[in-house]
Amino acid sequence: MTESQLFNLPTPLQLECGATLPTVQVAYHTYGTLNAAQDNVVWVCHALTANADVLTWWSGLFGPGYLFDPADYFIICANVLGSCYGSTGPLTPVSEGSEPLYQAFPLVTIRDMVAAHDQLRQHLGFSKIHTLIGGSLGGQQALEWAVQQPTLFENLVVLATNAQHSPWGIAFNESQRLAIQADQTYYSATPEGGQHGLKAARAMALLSYRSYEAYGTTQAEVEGDKLDQFRASSYQQYQGDKLVARFNAYTYVTLSKAMDSHNVGRGRGSLAAALKQIQARTLVIGITSDVLFPPAEQQLLARHIPTAQYVEMESHFGHDGFLIETVQITRFLERFYSRRLVHS
């Protein structure tokens, strides 16, 4: 992982819920060199449990030899507000000398994330961004930002995301939060609080990230006479432990609630009216097997964003296809741009 950089917001951040964070820091990574025309900026918005080091989790799309190569583009990815990878969140003090707020950390929305990242954008001096790209929660953030500042982005690429988080998606998130909050250690206000609940929550989430076909392909038993200790069971345990080792329950609750808050139409008349404000040339990518953000949600985006193109990936990987199917995504993007991103 490359070294993270930190930006401290110059003033307190007023959140959409009415609370105020006295101090806010944003962790971010940059790769490559800004060209003389400053028109080679690619801004990446990451998903729920990812971090700002996009080269580690979107390899195949970002990195040397791939479509978004740091040798050609100035790539930036910032950690979202409320996360645990360097930006202000439940495990970081929100003012000098204070203790972390843990479960008392205030409600953060997608719009609050955009507000923090736009201050970073201004700090870096970008008045134009060639491409804004994000999937899932990152796509929600990208859409909100493109609605707020329609002239800032030349191209917008969103994958496996939506204009408003669905009742289905909120129900998945609430079920996971119930698992976390059923773990009594969640209320201990320590960094390790809620770990058993977080493990269960991750196992639940996987069922929405993958598909029936994916489990059938990767977790099927070789022996047909087993009574216990199935591969699928071990896989759920393994993935739960893996997240617990790098994340925390308080951040998971905070960010899942932020995802629930997503609604570009809030205060703007309707979803359609909000999406019509986007001026960026837009590529919307759906995934055939995505049960969490089904293709109908991306099709809605494409219908109402004036310059949008819609494409659909054939994949058995479900929602996680936006991270895995980089060959298909690269092909879609090459057709979308139909020219090199960087201008000499």
TrEMBL record:
Keyword Amino-acid biosynthesis: yes
Record GO cellular component, one term: cytoplasm
Enzyme class: transferase
TM region positions: none
Pathway linked to the protein: Amino-acid biosynthesis; L-methionine biosynthesis via de novo pathway; O-acetyl-L-homoserine from L-homoserine: step 1/1
Keyword DNA-binding: no
Residue numbers annotated as active site: 136 (nucleophile), 290, 319
Annotated substrate binding sites: 202, 320
Pfam families according to UniProt: Abhydrolase_1 (PF00561)
All residue ranges annotated as the AB hydrolase-1 domain in the record: 41-324
Gene Ontology biological-process entries: homoserine metabolic process; methionine biosynthetic process
InterPro entries: AB_hydrolase_1 (IPR000073), AB_hydrolase_fold (IPR029058), HAT_MetX-like (IPR008220)
Major subcellular location class: cytoplasm
Its EC number(s): 2.3.1.31
GO molecular-function terms, A-Z: homoserine O-acetyltransferase activity
Catalytic activity: L-homoserine + acetyl-CoA = O-acetyl-L-homoserine + CoA
Compartments where found: Cytoplasm
Keywords from the UniProt entry: Acyltransferase, Amino-acid biosynthesis, Cytoplasm, Methionine biosynthesis, Transferase
Family: Belongs to the AB hydrolase superfamily. MetX family.
Assembly notes: Homodimer.
PANTHER family tied to this protein: HOMOSERINE O-ACETYLTRANSFERASE
Function: Transfers an acetyl group from acetyl-CoA to L-homoserine, forming acetyl-L-homoserine.
Protein name per its UniProtKB record: Homoserine O-acetyltransferase
Organism: Hymenobacter crusticola
Gene responsible for this protein: metXA
